Predict the structure.
Amino acid sequence: MSGRVLQRSAPTACWAAARLFREFGLPERIHTDNGVPFATTTLARLSSLSAFWVRLGILPEFIEPGKPQQNGRHERMHRTLKAETTRPPAGNRTAQQRRFNGFREEFNHERPHEALGMNTPAGFYEPSPRPMPSKLPPLDYPGHFEVCYVSFNGGIRWKRDWVNVSIVCAGEYVGLEEIDNGILELYFGPLKLGRLLEEHMRIEDANGKLKRRAAIVQAAETARRR
C-alpha cells in the first residue's frame, strides 16, 4: 500500500484500506504504531482510520508510545524496504512503484525468512473468510447499554449535561455500561474508550486521567453555556 498512498489524510488511508479489504478480506485485528493516520491523542488513541476499522469489526491494537521494539519485525521490514527501494529513490512515481512491486514479490514469494523456518510468507498466507461489506454495518451494543449519539462537536448529552467524547466519533453512536453508582464504561463498538465519571461529567482515559487539552476543555465549557 505504501507505494500508492501519497498522502496521510484519513480519507486517502480509508480508501486504500477498503481497496485492500475488498481484495483480501477483513482481518480480526490490525497491530500498528501510534503514528498518523493510525492513532491520535484522543480517547483510546482512536483516529478516523481506526474508527473505520472498528465499524468493519476490526479491532485496532497499538504498541505502547515510545516503544517501537514492540513492533520490531515490522520496523525491520521497513528498514529493509527503504534500503533496497529508496536509496537512492527512483526518478518518478511510476518507477518507484515498480521497485516497491518487485520488493513485495521477492519478500513474499522468494526470500526465505528465518522466523518462518526458512520458508516464505506466501507459503503460510490465507485470505480472510470475512468479506468487505458493501456498506458499513451499524455499531451494535448489548441491550443493557445506554446508547448515545455523538454530536458534530464530539460530545454527548448525559443527564442534561454535555460530556466531551471525541470529534473522531462525531455522527456515530457510543455505548455506556454502568459498572458502579455514577461510573459508566464508554464504548465505541467493541472498543473501550474510557470511563464516564458522573461526579465530574468527564471521561477518564485508560491512564486514569481526566485532564484534556485546553482547546477540548474550552469547547466543552462553551457547549455547556449554550
